[in-house]
Backbone:
């Protein structure tokens, strides 16, 4: 695959899939918190939370995800990486871009604890998108 195609694929995967993965991680986190506080929760309510949060996941997550895709795409277009380096780079870049960009639309209203989950979700999304991108654009030649 040509470097420009690798770059464009990376940006597309991170932008489209990243917020969805972040939403899934956030919904699972809320579900675990609910289970710890109130016991078993129905599958329907978890699905309702997932669908309810999805527009917010894209409105807040698409810019950090796209930025992560641009940075990751720049790296993957130049280097032929393996799976583990792709996951690690996705994790680090996802966490960094989320930490730098996420509070901007909210004018710094997030306390330190809130930023921990936001950066964690960015890291999880970046790692998974890095692995997906590695699988799509081609594995490292043996």
Residues:
């Amino acid at each position: 695959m040509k470097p420009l195609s690798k770059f464009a694929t990376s940006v597309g995967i991170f932008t489209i899939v990243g917020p969805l993965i972040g939403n899934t991680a956030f919904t699972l986190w809320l579900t675990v918190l609910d289970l710890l506080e109130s016991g078993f929760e129905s599958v329907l309510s978890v699905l309702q939370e997932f669908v309810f949060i999805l527009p917010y996941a894209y409105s807040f997550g698409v810019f950090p995800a796209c930025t992560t895709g641009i940075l990751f795409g720049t790296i993957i277009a130049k280097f032929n990486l393996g799976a583990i380096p792709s996951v690690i780079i996705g994790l680090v870049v996802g966490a960094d871009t989320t930490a730098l960009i996420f509070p901007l639309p909210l004018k710094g209203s997030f306390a330190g604890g809130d930023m921990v989950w936001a950066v964690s979700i960015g890291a999880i999304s970046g790692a998974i998108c890095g692995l997906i991108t590695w699988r799509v654009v081609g594995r490292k030649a043996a």
Notes: The chain is about 80% helix and 0% strand.
